[in-house]
User: What shape does this take?
Amino acid sequence: MHKYQHASFWMCYVCLLCVCAVTHWLTDWLQNELGNITLPAVKGSVFIIFGSVEYVLYNMSIQRCDLPEPSVAFSEGTGMSLQVSGLSIAITGLWNTRYGIIKDGGWFELVMFTVSLNTVLQLGREDGRLSISTPVCSADVESVQMNFHGGGSPIFQPFVKFFHKHITSEIRAKICQTFVKEIEALESHLAAMSVALKVDSYVYMNISLTDSPLVKDSGLGLNVKGEFYSNNFPSEPPFPSNHFELSWREDYMVSLGASEFFVNSAAYAYQRAGALKIRITDDMIPKASPFHLNTSQFGQLIPQLPKKYPDLPMQILLYASDAPLFSFNKTVINVNVSASAKAYAMKANSVAIPLFRLDVESSFSGKAYIDKYLLKGVLQMKNLTVTLGATEIGCFPVGPIEQALKLIMSSFVLPKLNAQLKDGLPLPRVKGFGLRNSVMTIENGFLALATDLSAPYGSWQ
Assistant: This one.
């Protein structure tokens, strides 16, 4: 187990066990998908005694492939080394040749035996995103067997052996060229990716790397800024960031850490974006409820209200007056919520008459854990206070309203929520990947998750 401290707010450590598992999944997937791969045409020319013969191999398809599982290892301070050895592949296709005005053609069988590839993938950081390159690559083909069929040209048939040697040499030379080209395409894709990941219509998250990837013999560490911003009103939050020390669990595929700042920046961004508000109308309250949004019923709590505005429907605009603030303290999650509720009386012409504003300060504490494939926990209310922030109908005591809110929270809201948390919420899956053997702990200042991954082969669609 290793511990690392960085200035990022979200950390991910991927151990060699995870890379080996992904390699195994990819190998199985590729084995199943090889029959659907279209191979590019191979063109060239070969010099024989009387001049050059132009050739093209096309319409090629893979008939069989013995694909051994690659050997993958981390190279400390550099990246990853990849070795493939013992690969054999059988291909069929069509051929055409041209020698002056003489043309010929037919079909062929090609088998490559004991293909090997040794390469190093160098990982780095460029403009805040992950970069990848291939500084080292070597490849070899032990032998190639080719059988040409069809064609009636007496000039072509004697010189098949020249094509055999030439094409074998071309295959050897192009293995690394092709591999490097694919890595360059991947690098171009990474370079085009934005470090601003859109979450929804309200916020985005900055996923830029705060420093270069940390490569050890046992795994790879990525330190991500992990800060949320409002799409329309991006700004830095008014609270400081916190650094944290995450334990790298080598007995799990992935170790993740999320700081208080990561969670609080999300709450701040949503509050800035105006997402943390709701307009409550009477039709949202069950008909069987003993209490409805009506000035006459509110008269039980505010006697002067029905006298001034008798029997009018009401609306409540409930919103977060400040961003919710989370803190993690060794096994416990604490959250403070500041909210306001503006009450309106609604005339028949839909004109809203402002009545009063109540300010509510509340605090909660909870525990969370993972049980198999479910997130479970419990939440309790620590405190709730109500003050009269503004009024258009004169002052009134808020004690009865505070007691009513406490009763609603303790008797209805929290029991229903805790029943759901007791049953558990399913852990998320991303493109078929799931979490298993997961362990989540609440540490001082951050959440830590150590987990293995599961991926059904069908997820590689």
The domain at 17-192 is CATH 3.15.10.10 (Bactericidal permeability-increasing protein; domain 1). Confidence is low (pLDDT under 50) at residues 1-7, 457-461. The longest strand covers residues 102-126.
